[in-house]
Amino acid sequence: MDKIAVFPGSFDPITKGHESIIKRALPLFDKIIVAIGVNAEKQHFFPIQKRMKWIQQVFQDEPKIVVDKYSGMTVDYCRKMNAGFILRGLRTSADFEFERSIGQINKKLYPEIETIFLLTTPELTALNSSIIRDIIRHGGDASPFVPESIDLFD
Ligand code: ADP
């Protein structure tokens, strides 16, 4: 059976941190679905079409990567996609506390699922999408923090 992982997130926008986790996870899985969770109550900065396009651009030469969006619970989406794994990145102990409860609840809701955590490489620990949004809001240059192949003004 193919090993399929879902990497869920907002990717608002994709950062070098996300890119690194996805690339490092490639040897572990046959397919990774980078899935943008759509939540009508959550404010986003970039439109979903742009967020999906940028991820597709970054991984255009990688056949194992699929980009998608979903609404509702992540475990229901995993079931629908036949995914046995949820991929998440861990930066800090705060991430760990947050991820632990979600991971444990997801396991209750869908016992076949395993959440796989990859530790961030040290130089990417400080990076998150909200810092990038702040830089853009204030007219700064966020390009060092996003994958090289994307242009946030495109
Ligand atoms: P969410 O909306 O779930 O917080 P994000 O788009 O912020 O989603 O992140 C998706 C996943 O990527 C999460 O598992 C998060 O921990 C991970 N991630 C985000 N930034 C980094 C980074 N700099 N290094 C490693 N993992 C990261």
Give a quick set of tags describing it.
binds adenosine-5'-diphosphate; Rossmann fold; alpha/beta; 154 residues; globular
Description of the molecule:
It is a single chain. This protein has 154 residues and is α/β, with parallel strands linked by helices. It has a single domain (4-145), classed as Rossmann fold, CATH 3.40.50.620. It is built from 5 helices and 5 strands. The protein has a 5-stranded parallel beta sheet, sandwiched between helices. Helix 1 links the parallel strand 1 (4-9) and strand 2 (31-37). Adenosine-5'-diphosphate binds at residues 9-11, 15, 17-18, 21, 88-89, 91, 95, 120, 124, 127-129.
What does this entry show, briefly?
The protein is 35% helix and 20% strand. By secondary structure, the chain is an alpha/beta fold. A 5-stranded parallel sheet has the order 3-2-1-4-5, with helices on both faces.
CATH-defined architecture:
3-Layer(aba) Sandwich
Structural class: alpha/beta
Low-confidence stretches: none
At the first level of CATH, the class is Alpha Beta
N-to-C terminal Cα separation, in Å? Answer: 39 Å
Strand order of the largest sheet: 3-2-1-4-5
Bound molecules: adenosine-5'-diphosphate
Q: What Rg is obtained from the alpha carbons, in whole angstroms?
A: 15 Å
- Globally, the shape reads globular
User: Would you report the number of β strands?
Assistant: 5
Question: Strand percentage, roughly?
Answer: 15-25%
